[in-house]
Specification:
Largest sheet: 7 strands, mixed
Strand content: 25-35%
Helix content: 25-40%
Number of helices: 3
Radius of gyration: 15 Å
Order of helices and strands: EEHHEEEEEEHEEE
Structural class: alpha+beta
Distance between the termini: 9 Å
Amino acid sequence: MNIFALEIWDDEGQKCTFYTVRWDDSDENETDRFFDKYDTIPELKTATQQLLSFVLDSVGDDYGAIDALFNRPENEVTGLPNTGRVTVKQILFAYPNFPLRLYALRINNRSDIVILFNGGIKSAWTNQESKDIHLKWVEACQFAKRIEDALKDGEIMIDENKRKIISANGGDEIFL
C-alpha cells in the first residue's frame, strides 16, 4: 500500500470528529472525492445529500458513532448508512434500498472519532458483486488495517481529551 495522509475532515460536530485519508500524491481526500462525484449525478444528488446529512448531523452533532447507526459491518470497515429500521431517541433511521455506501472506521470505544473513506453505488447484493463499489471497499479495508496497525504499534495515538489522532511525536501531521 502506498503512503497516505490521515487528516481531519470535519471537527465541528458536538459528538464526533471525522478524519479521512488522502493519497500522498493527491490534492483531494477520499471522502471529498466520494461526495463530489455523486453529488454531480442528478439521480444520486438527493441520496448524496441525505448521506452527508446523516454523517454530519446525525453522527457528528446528535448521536455520535453509536452501534445503532454503525450496524453494517463489512470486514474491517462499516458501510454507511445504517441497515434496517433503527430508532434512536424517537428518531427513525431507515434507508431501504439506499443506492450509496460510504465506508468508515470507528476508532475508539467511545465512538467519537470516525475515519471516513470512499465508497460508491451499491448495485448488487454483496460488495464483491457490486462492480462500482468493490475496489473502494477493498481499498477502505486496507486503509483501516493500516490505521489499526499504526494504533497498535504506537505510530499514532488517540488524544481522548481533544478528540484527535496524533502522531507518536505529538504532531498533527500523520502519514502512514
